[in-house]
Write a structure and sequence with these properties.
Chain A has about 425 residues and is an alpha/beta fold. Chain A has helices at about 20-30, 60-70, 115-120, 160-170, 220-225, 270-285, 305-315, 370, 405-430, and strands at about 10-15, 35, 75-80, 85-90, 95-100, 125, 135, 140, 150, 180-185, 190, 195-200, 215, 245-255, 290-295, 315-320, 325-330, 335-340, 350, 355-360, 360-365, 390-395. In chain A, helix 1 (about 20-30) runs parallel beside helix 2 (about 60-70). In chain A, about 45% of the residues are buried. In chain B, about 60% of the residues lie in helices and about 0% in strands. Chain B is built from 13 helices and no strands. Classes of the chains: A alpha/beta (about 425), B mainly alpha (about 210). The interface of A and B includes residues 252 and 343 of A.
């Protein structure tokens, strides 16, 4: 492991998703020293797992490419992957951070040739596909992983499989003796870009995510469209692999609900509207595929109203103003049957579909208060902008449920705040 | 009772929501409903009544006083609590429904034929008379509620249970002529009278 030099003029960014990358790059391109800490083996975060962005329906790959290019050429950013913050102490302008880094068992010599992966046979659940698929125990997290370095899963270290992987490597990049490390860092300011995670759909008992195979979450649905995803880009039912031509989307799955997340997750309406366009993409204009959106009210925030209008004009998409009460399953066909009463006429329905997609809510991915008590959060655990926070700044979805565009804005704002703190320090030290 | 109804109409004019908020138990929750429909879809008796809870709440807000108070919906509630458990805003829907039923009843405008309401009234009359439920009278009253022939049929159908209750001392065969009361049933009368007095005073009912 290369030395990490950090002083109280360094900005530490925790989390290497789109927000963390943006905050780190903005600060570094302003001439500040930055350490970027990511717990996964690759940067990219949840954005890398998306098939397409709304509203332009472009792939996230081009944005990632630009950011990775900026990272590669910037000597001021030090990236630590597979690293997690264990403790943090001190005050604004003088923080001490303890970071635990797990062993990757692959060093910088890796050329990402893939020989180790071909050499091993054991497989592990693939977190990049929300565990819907398997990957080799010697793996590249995903095609656009940064750094482009393979990872050896600890489960094969010390086994014959591990030795096979090592033998297959022609550049000597595999080091099975690698151990966990503790790294102590200094920082003037810390940007928490710790992001979000999908709410645990199994908690929504009436929707049967834990019981019915053909009930999936919106993040899983997103992975299904990826040609390299768990279904090789096919919209098929998990139960029998049949094409899912009648798809129900349930909004506010876990959000705006005092039994689950009290807040509105804000992006789910747009995510669903976007996902309805996948049907035409997948099955063609002339197909009989249809999407039904069950909603309380559609919150296509500000300028996305146009996108909403466009989807409303699509004959394949229908809207039912009703929060589904519960889902049952037709045992023979495996079809989910949605039960509820709509609000426009109070009609009782029992609607059968091929597949149900839960537009799952967003919650903070880490409990920041467990790490430090000196940061103020709202009732849902999102980081607040508060002078009491010292030089702790939230960025992206650690502060709010945000779409990519707003997450990037939030990250740039956080970078600017952190820059102001370290500028004050350097001025004070120069005086 | 009719005069109470008129007094309430005069007092609240067209603001039925306010009337519900001030008079119905847990009525101040009604405005919190966001019309998602989970309660209606979760109700096991949903298909069998006039209006699902979410519609009742909207009707209250729309000022449909007569339709709400005369609805059979709140009388059909079996207190399964499915709606309360699932309501995203934690409205105490079961309690509101019972509150509405009680209010409509006290105003004398409640649904007339609803069997649940008729049974509730029968049970109340029975148990307040002596302070103890007279099983024989209640059962027979319930069976014969819809006519003599129906009563005979139902009584015969329930014969086995009746004999079982008699054998275990749960059913007094002389109950029809002389029911067992409790000691001091006069005091029960006094307590109930006082309770009504307090409620009438607090809620502005004319007994």
């Amino acid at each position: 492991m290369a030395e990490v030099v950090a002083t109280n003029e360094t900005i530490v960014v925790v989390g290497g998703g789109i927000s963390g990358m943006t905050a780190a790059l903005e600060a570094a391109e302003c001439g500040k020293d930055v350490v970027l800490i990511e717990k996964n083996p690759s940067l990219g975060g949840r954005v890398a797992q998306l098939y397409k962005y709304f509203p332009k329906l472009c792939r996230p790959t081009c944005g990632q490419e630009i950011n990775q290019r900026r990272l590669k050429v910037n000597p001021r950013i030090k990236v630590l992957t597979m690293a997690e913050v264990e403790a943090v102490s001190g005050q604004a302008g003088d923080y001490s951070i303890t970071v635990n880094q797990s062993p990757r068992f692959v060093n910088e010599k890796c050329t990402a040739c893939g020989a180790c992966s071909s050499a091993v046979t054991s497989e592990i659940a693939n977190p990049f596909d929300y565990n819907l698929s398997k990957t080799k125990a010697a793996y590249l997290p995903f095609d656009m992983a940064y750094p482009q370095q393979y990872v050896i899963d600890p489960s094969i270290v010390g086994t014959e499989e591990g030795e096979k992987a090592k033998a297959a490597c022609s550049v000597g990049a595999i080091d099975l003796e690698m151990e966990a490390e503790t790294i102590n860092l200094k920082a003037g300011a810390i940007i928490w870009a710790t992001g979000w995670k999908p709410y645990d759909a199994g908690n929504i008992q009436p929707y049967g995510y834990d019981r019915f195979l053909n009930v999936v979450t919106s993040v899983e649905f997103e992975r299904m469209m990826d040609p390299k995803g768990p279904t090789a880009g096919k919209l098929v039912r998990p139960s029998d692999g049949a094409e899912a031509k009648s798809i129900a989307f349930i909004q506010c799955a876990g959000s705006r609900d005092r039994n689950h997340l009290t807040h509105c997750s804000r992006i789910c309406c747009m995510a669903t509207l976007k996902q309805t366009t996948y049907l035409t993409e997948q099955f063609g204009e002339q197909s009989e595929a249809e999407a039904t959106i069950y909603y309380i009210d559609i919150r296509a925030i500000d300028r996305f109203e146009e996108f909403y209008n466009r989807v409303q004009e699509d004959e394949k998409v229908s809207f039912v103003k009703s929060k589904v009460a519960y889902i049952a399953e037709d045992k023979a066909s495996g079809n989910p049957i949605l039960h509820g009463v709509d609000t426009e006429g109070y009609n009782r329905y029992a609607a059968e579909h091929d597949l149900v997609v839960l537009a799952i809510g967003m919650e903070p991915s880490v409990d920041i208060n467990a790490l430090t008590s000196e940061i103020s959060t709202d009732a849902s655990g999102f980081i607040q902008l508060d002078e009491e926070n010292g030089a702790f700044f939230g960025a992206g979805c650690s502060t709010n449920p945000l779409d990519v565009n707003r997450a990037v804005q939030s990250a740039t704002a956080a970078a600017l705040r952190a820059i102001q703190v370290v500028n004050q320090i350097s001025r004070a030290e120069a005086a | 009772m009719g005069s109470t109804n008129t007094a309430k109409v005069d007092r609240y004019k067209n603001n039925f929501l306010k009337e519900v908020e001030e008079n119905v138990e847990e009525g101040d929750w009604v405005r919190m409903c966001m019309q998602c429909g989970v309660c209606a879809g979760s109700c096991p008796l949903g298909p069998h009544w006039d209006h699902p809870p979410q519609e009742i709440f909207m009707m209250i807000r729309a000022g449909k006083r007569d339709e709400v108070l005369a609805s059979d919906s709140m009388w059909m509630c079996t207190s399964c609590y499915n709606c309360i458990v699932r309501c995203p805003r934690e409205l105490p829907i079961t309690h509101i429904m019972h509150g509405l039923a009680n209010y409509a009843h006290r105003l004398g405008v409640a649904h007339q034929e609803n069997p649940t309401r008729r049974f509730a009234q029968m049970f109340w009359n029975n148990v307040t008379k002596t302070g103890r439920a007279n099983e024989l009278k209640i059962s027979l009253g319930l069976y014969f509620m819809d006519g003599f022939m129906n009563g005979i049929k139902k009584s015969l159908a329930m014969k086995k249970i009746g004999i079982g209750m008699f054998m275990t001392g749960r059913l007094d065969p002389f109950g029809l002529v002389q029911g067992r009361g409790c000691k001091g049933s006069g005091d029960i009368d006094k307590m109930l009278k006082k309770a009504f007095e307090i409620e009438d005073h607090r809620k502005g009912y004319n007994s």
